[in-house]
Amino acid sequence: MIGIEQEANGRKSVLALEDMANLISVYDVVRQLKKVLLGRMDEHWEDAGAFSVFEYIFNVIDNATCTKIQFLGKDEAIEIVMGVLADETMNPEEKARQLLGMD
Known about the structure:
Order of helices and strands: EEHHHHH
Number of strands: 2
Strand order of the largest sheet: 1-2
Radius of gyration: 13 Å
């Protein structure tokens, strides 16, 4: 299934559910690695080093969220995305469905 819609900034977005779920799976693994290796996983923004990839993955996921979330404004949208990604009761596909507005 592919989500196609006009984004808040006028760009068109095409992202397959499977692609978003795969990104979220990678995000979850990097998040767990941060917790094991650094003792924390709450900080998303790293200036440099191997964990700077965490920010890049987050940005791709954030940029691919549905217009419904993006129209809430950047701060609220980021809070929603972070909340969905941190929800350990959902699997990556469920998170992807919610972020792509397919729920």
